[in-house]
Design goal:
about 200 residues; alpha+beta; Alpha-D-Glucose-1,6-Bisphosphate, Chain A, domain 3; TATA-Binding Protein; 2 domains; 5-stranded antiparallel beta sheet; 4-stranded mixed beta sheet; 6 helices; about 40% helix
Length: about 200
């Protein structure tokens, strides 16, 4: 699903998720590792928790089939609502958002928080080498940082933002996602990730 507010602005899935979380008072959210920390911030503010799953809508569906209570959101725009009853259906996702908005009142734009800054990088690496590099990266980062998630590549959450490094499942590339609250924060994360990738064996021109 792609949602627009009444001003015609396209909304990120995580922004839509925040409206759903606030409107339905959702305390359990399943989100893929690529989803913004914006989701965590709002869930935690009402005493809830976020469970991370690998990138791919099928992982949200798996959780729904196991009886997930709450909301599922994928960074590519897939949602599992009504505690899994809709199994990623667009029409019921729309109804779920409208119900949330009805409970909150006012216009959609008034409930949409700004997204943090983000950047994506892509490095061409051979299919065998890409997995080897990311595995080495996991080992290196797990020994340095406290908040490390390794269910799909490796994600590190820091005070100034977070980054995710994943080997592509469809191309001979390593994908990197960065998120921070400022341009300087993004630059710092990018430099950090590039240096860590070099240490893990990635050659950069």
């Amino acid at each position: 699903m792609i949602f627009y507010d009444e001003r015609g602005r396209a909304l990120a899935p995580e922004q839509v998720a925040v409206v759903m979380i606030n409107g339905h008072r959702v305390k359990r959210v399943v989100a893929n590792v690529e989803c913004s920390s914006l989701v965590d911030r709002y869930v935690e503010s009402i005493g809830g928790s976020v469970e991370r799953v690998p990138v791919g809508r099928i992982y949200l569906i798996y959780k729904a089939l196991k009886g997930v209570e709450g909301l599922g959101v994928e960074s590519s725009g897939h949602f599992v609502t009504y505690s899994g009853a809709n199994l990623d259906d667009g029409i019921t996702t729309l109804l779920y958002l409208l119900e949330a908005l009805g409970k909150l009142g006012g216009k959609l734009s008034s409930h949409v928080p700004p997204m943090p800054l983000s950047k994506r990088l892509k490095f061409e690496v051979g299919d065998e080498k890409k997995f080897e590099i990311v595995e080495k990266l996991k080992e290196n980062l797990a020994s340095k940082y406290r908040r490390v998630t390794t269910i799909d590549g490796v994600r590190v959450d820091l005070d100034e933002g977070w980054f995710l490094v994943r080997p592509s499942n469809t191309e001979p590339v390593i994908r990197v996602t960065l998120e921070a609250e400022s341009t300087e924060g993004l630059k710092t994360l990018e430099s950090l990730v590039k240096e860590e990738l070099r240490r893990a064996g990635l050659s950069m021109a």
